[in-house]
Amino acid sequence: MGDILIGTCSWTDKALVGSGWYPPGRRDAEGRLRHYAERFPVVEVDATYYALPSARNSLLWAERTPAGFRFDVKAFSLLTGHPTRTATLPADLRDRDTGDPGLLDEIWHRFSEALRPLREADRLGTLLFQFPPWFAPGARAEAALHRTRRRAEGWPVAVEFRHPDWWREARRDRTAALLADLDAAAVAVDMAQDLPTSIPPLTPVTSGDLAVVRFHGRSDAWGTGTKEDRFRHTYEPDELMEWRPRLHSLADRAAQVHVLFNNCCADAAVRAAETMRDLMCPATHRRGATG
What we know:
- Helix 3 packs parallel to helix 4 (about 100-120).
- The protein is globular, with a radius of gyration of 18 Å.
- It has ten helices and eight strands.
- The chain has one domain: Protein of unknown function UPF0759 (TIM Barrel).
- By secondary structure, the protein is of the alpha/beta class.
- The protein has helices at about 15, 30-35, 55-65, 100-120, 140-150, 170-180, 225-230, 235-240, 245-255, 270-280; strands at about 5-10, 40-45, 70-75, 125-130, 155-160, 185-190, 210-215, 255-260.
- Strands 1-8-7-6-5-4-3-2 form an eight-stranded parallel beta sheet.
C-alpha cells in the first residue's frame, strides 16, 4: 500500500493565519512553515498560481522542512489559460501578448527554474495544473494538454479539471487514458454534488507514482459566491469517512496519495486534515506530532 499524506492547500492563507492556529512565537514566515511541517507531511503552494515563484523561496522552503516533506506546487495562472494580470508578469515580459506561445515557453522556463532547488532538495511532490471551468474536453483542449506536458517534460504533473464533462460517464475512460498517456496524475475532488458544475467524486489512477485528492468543501455557492462563500465548509467525520475506502483504494494503486483540504476559511482546513489523519491511521503517514 502506498503512503497517504494529508495536509492543506495553503499554510499562509490569511484566514488561517488570523485564526490563531499558529501559536505565539511561530507566526513569522519561518515559524509558520516549521509549525505546519511538524504536523503534516504535505502542503500545496497556492501563491505560485498568482505570481511566479522565486529560487530563494524554494531554498527556504526546503531548509525549513524535514526530509520526506512534500510541496505540491500550483502552476502559474497563465500556464493553465486563466486570466492573468499584466502586473503579475516579470517587468521585461509585460509588453508581450499573453496568447503568444513563446511567452508561455519563457514563463514556464522561469517558473520551473525557480522551483529547481525545491526539486533538487527532494521536497517537490508534483506540479498541479488546475484548468478553468471553460476548459471543456475536445481536440483543442487535448492539444493544449499535450503542449503543456511537452513543456513540463521530466517534471511530475497532476491535472485537475473544473469542467464536469471530462469526468462524465460517457467520457471518463477517455479522460483517464489521456492523462495516463501524458504521465499525469488525475486529481480527484470532493465538492457539493447538486450543482451544474459538480465534478463527480471519482478516483482514477493515471500515474503509478502519485494520486491527488483535493477537498474543496461542499458549499452550494461554488462558482458563484465570494471566495469565503465558495470554500466555507466544516467537514463532519461522516463526510470524511465516505473517503476512507476510496483513499485505501488509491493507495493500493499509487505509490503515494496526497490528500489536500482546500476549505480555507479560518482553521477549517487544518482541522479537517487532522480529523482525516486520525480516521485513516494507521494507513496515514504521520510525523508523530501533537496538534
